[in-house]
Structures are given as C-alpha cells and as structure tokens.
UniProtKB/TrEMBL annotation:
Superkingdom of the source species: Eukaryota
Domain SAM, chain residue ranges per copy: 454-499
Keyword Repeat: yes
InterPro entries, alphabetized: SAM (IPR001660), SAM/pointed_sf (IPR013761), WD40/YVTN_repeat-like_dom_sf (IPR015943), WD40_PAC1 (IPR020472), WD40_repeat_CS (IPR019775), WD40_repeat_dom_sf (IPR036322), WD40_rpt (IPR001680)
CDD domains reported for this sequence: WD40
Key words of the record: Repeat, WD repeat
Transmembrane portions of the chain: none
Family matches, as SUPFAM superfamilies: SAM/Pointed domain, WD40 repeat-like
Repeat region (WD), residues: 100-131, 146-187, 189-230, 231-272, 341-373, 383-424
Name of protein: SAM domain-containing protein
Length: 513
C-alpha cells in the first residue's frame, strides 16, 4: 500500500544511480523515468478490478493497521494546532514544490495521468502538458501547448491510462487529443453549440461524458466516437460529471443544485434518481471515491461514496446505493446524505478523491485547497499559495502530489505523500454500523524480498494473489521473473503477454500494491 516504498523496492537494482533521502528519490541519470515507465504503465493497466474483500482478520485489526498507516503517512501532523486552530489544522500548510506560470489567463482545470504527466486548461484557449521530473519539477513537453479551441478551455481530463486527453470549451466543442503526439484526434460538437463546461472518461476507458450550458450531458463511445445518448435535465447548466468506479452509472451536478444518477450502460433518457437542492446555490463539482462498496449477507451490492462541492461553501458526502438485483424488479438507486465537511469560507469549485480513496481534496474561492479524511470525516490540512480563487485540484495516481489551478493564472504542485493505504470496501455489520476493510501489501513485500530477486513462480503467485490468474499462464510460458518484469514495455505487455488495453473493459476496480 505504500507506493513510495514499492517504488524504492523496484529501484533496488539501480542502487548505483539512485540514492534516497527521507523517502525522497534523487536520480543521477535522466533515464530513471524511462526505466520506471514500464512499471508505471503496468500499474495503470491493472488498476481496475472487481470488488474484493480481505478475510481472516478482525475488524479491529484492520482499524489498528489503518491507524498505523495513517499515522505513518500523516501529511500535516507537524502543522496541526500550531496556530491554535480549533480544527487542528496548521494555518501555514506546506509550500508548493513546483509553480507553473505559463498561462496568460485563468487556469480553469488540472488533471494528472499517473505522476508523469500533468495537463492544464485555461481561459486563454490553450491546453498545456507537462512531464514530471525527479526533483518534483514539471517541464512542458515539446508539442505543448495544444491549440484548437476558439474560446476558453473549461475542463481537461485524461483517459484512465493516459493515452488520450479530453478538453471541453466555451466554443461548444470537446476535443480529444493524442497524448503521445499532441495530435488532435477529433472534435465532439453537439448540435446545440452551447458552451461545454465539463468532461470525464469512464474508469474502464470505454465512455466519455461531457455537459454544459444546454442543460444536457452526452455520453460518447470512445472507440467509435459516436454519441450514444444525451440526457436532459431541467434548464440548468451541467457543471460536473463523474462515473461510478465500475463505469455503470453517471452522476451529474447542475447549477440548479440538483444531483442526478443516470444509467451509463443503457439508453435510458430519464434519471434513475435525483437529489433536489443538494446545494442551495448550485453544484460546482462532483467526484466518486474510486474505492467504495459494500457486502451484506454474502451478497455484493453496489454502494458508492460521492463528494460534491457547491456555491454554498459546503462539502457534502453522499452514499449512492443500487440495491442487489431482485428478480422481476428494476434496481432503483438512492442518494443518501452521509456527512457535511465544513471549513471553507467561499464556494467550493472542485472536489477530488485520491486514487486510494483515503484522501479527499477540495478547492475553493477562499484561495485554499483543503485535504480531508473521508473515513474519519476530519480535516487533514490546508494547502496555500494562490492569491485568487482556486478553480481545480487533482491528485497524482500515487497520491504523492496535489496540483491546483487558480484565477491567478498559476498552477501550484504540492507533495503530500498521503495515499499509502488502500480503502477496499464498506461493509454493513450488526446494528447497521459501517466499518471499513483495508487490504495490505503482497506477502512478498511484507517479507522485504526484492522484486529483482523474484523468480517466475513468485511473479505468477503475485498475479494469482492479486486476482489476475488469467495472465499467469503467459507469464510462466515466457519465464517472466522479477528482473525481466522491471524492463517490461507496453508493447511487450500487449504483444507478448496479452496484457493490453483491450483487456481493461472487463476491469472495474483494482489496486496494485
């Protein structure tokens, strides 16, 4: 569960070129990123898998271990209470490790692909792409900026595997770009030509949703670029969209304050559920936790944790639940209030969970980004540095970095190193009390065995342990051991081992340790 620790183990064969200092990686060669890229690519590829449950341990053990993890990775303990704040959060926060000042107008959106790529969108009509460096700086790639919009860019969103980037604009179009080359692949432009405010890919990479001022949200097939359906609301701008972790459902938030749940798979044109007045003055942003589910009486149901931010300065958590299928009845989703997190003094403009689901970030017009523990429902810390409203925030996939864009035309990046645990799923126990189950790292990592020393059977055993037994035959046939695993490229994974993006359609949720 400790990504940085895992990376260090992956790097152990490179001791001659890498030194570590207090968990920070320092490289003496520019080839480090290229060397690690195959591992990062495989991590992204295997990121989504079916719901799982850890057995053989008391709930109290999970809580105890989670507490140890959270204590070890606590991001702002040193700042808490220094200024006498009632919420225990230090006012000073952390200083940004990187500041980007390339845009000439408001930065409206930021998004990460893994840790290696950062995308930014701006009212200056441009999209920019940056590559991460080992000193936590970001260098703009050669083909950036991406120019094609005739009005401001409102949202940027990477596909789950970082091969495509979507950008939504006031010009009424959503452009899909090739991340490798910067080539404009297509422009999705509904007939209404209304401003497009938001866009998001489904976690399985199959669908893309976009919505805006025409009161509608569309769903496109990413492979065929065909419009599958358009979902009409009530005369309110669609301000935010988010898919459930299994890509089955879509939630839209509107300027009228409503939350609506739609079926993303089938052609239903009416919402399956709606929460009116979720935010008094309008919903600004919604995002599903990527790691949330439940099990009751041995039956896997569908229960998702949704965060929403609004113009009313409130950060709300909701439980969106689809009951287990009953013969002869349609499943009817429900949206139930879970908790309200207070702290911002101005409208919340962006909310985002970390990939582990253990940290929630909210960006606000009060010029700050706040980090929250969505399990304990407590504040973790404040990120400061912007001098105007903060429009967008995003986590790197490993949870180590948080980026934010602002009306001050600046992008700040902070190192938080906060997402080291893996929130697996939510269970309902006696008395209706909800408890969290946490899955911990592979036994190989617990035994501190170097990946480079794994033999073929170790690798295949790891695949089986992670629920990926279908790949073990090919790995065994080609005698893939730990040393070779370190040098895997995307081409080898797809062509030699049969592990390619075509397989991801069957994936819904997975966490690689």
């Amino acid at each position: 569960n400790n990504w940085s620790g895992t990376v260090l183990k992956l790097c152990e064969p490179l001791n001659s070129t890498i030194t570590t200092f207090q968990g920070r990686l320092c490289s003496k060669t520019s080839d480090l990123c290229q060397l690690l890229q195959p591992v990062v690519s495989m991590t992204n590829l295997l990121k989504y898998k079916n719901w799982y449950r850890m057995e053989g341990a008391e709930d109290k053990d999970h809580f105890r271990d989670l507490e140890l993890l959270k204590e070890r990775c606590s991001i702002f303990n040193k700042n808490r209470g220094k200024n006498g704040n009632d919420d225990g959060v230090g006012g000073a926060g952390l200083a940004p490790v990187c500041t980007i000042k390339d845009h000439t107008n408001d930065v409206t959106s930021v998004d990460f692909a893994g840790r290696c790529l950062l995308a930014t969108g701006s009212s200056d009509k441009s999209v920019r792409l940056y590559k991460w460096q080992v000193d936590d700086s970001f260098v703009e790639v050669g083909y950036s900026p991406l120019l094609g919009h005739t009005y401001g860019v409102n949202c940027v969103s990477f596909s789950p595997f970082g091969t495509k980037l979507a950008s939504a604009s006031t010009d009424g179009s959503t452009i899909i770009w090739d991340v490798k080359t910067g080539e404009r692949l297509c422009s999705l432009q509904p007939s209404s030509e209304a401003a497009v405010r938001v866009c998001a890919f489904s976690p399985n990479s199959v669908l893309l949703s976009a919505g805006g001022d025409d009161d509608m949200a569309g769903i496109w097939d990413v492979s065929t670029l065909s419009l599958l359906r358009r979902m009409c609301g009530d005369e309110s701008t669609v301000t935010s969209v988010s898919f459930t972790p299994d890509s089955c459902y879509l939630v839209t938030g509107t300027s009228g304050g409503e939350l609506r749940v739609w079926d993303a798979r089938y052609g239903h044109s009416v919402p399956l559920a709606m929460k009116a007045e979720a935010h008094d003055l309008g919903v600004s942003s919604v995002h599903f936790s990527p790691a949330f589910g439940k099990e009751e009486h041995g039956i896997i149901g569908k229960q998702y944790l949704l965060a929403s931010g609004g113009q009313d300065t409130e950060l709300q958590l909701w439980v969106v639940e689809i009951e287990s299928q009953v013969l002869g009845r349609d499943n009817i989703p429900t949206i139930t209030p879970h908790h309200s997190l207070c702290g911002h003094s101005a409208p919340i403009m962006s909310v985002r969970f970390s990939a582990s689901g253990l940290i929630l970030a909210s960006a606000s017009g009060d010029k700050t980004i706040r980090l929250w523990d969505p399990i304990k429902l407590t504040a973790l810390g404040i990120l400061e540095g912007h001098n105007r409203y903060v429009t967008s925030c995003a986590f790197s996939d490993d949870g180590a970095l948080v980026a934010a864009g602002s009306g001050d035309r600046v992008v700040h990046v902070w190192r938080v190193d906060g997402a080291t645990g893996s929130l697996s799923q939510m269970s309902t126990h006696a008395g209706g009390q909800r408890k969290l189950l946490v899955r911990f790292p592979s036994q190989k990592f617990r035994e501190n065995i170097k990946l480079v020393d794994w033999n073929c059977e170790d690798v295949c055993g790891w695949l089986v342990e992670q629920g990926l037994a279908e790949y073990s035959h090919n790995f065994r046939t080609h005698a893939i051991d730990g040393r070779e695993l370190l040098t895997m490229t995307d081409e080898i994974l797809e062509q030699k081992l049969g592990v390619g993006m075509s397989f991801t359609v069957a994936f819904s949720m997975f966490y690689v340790h």
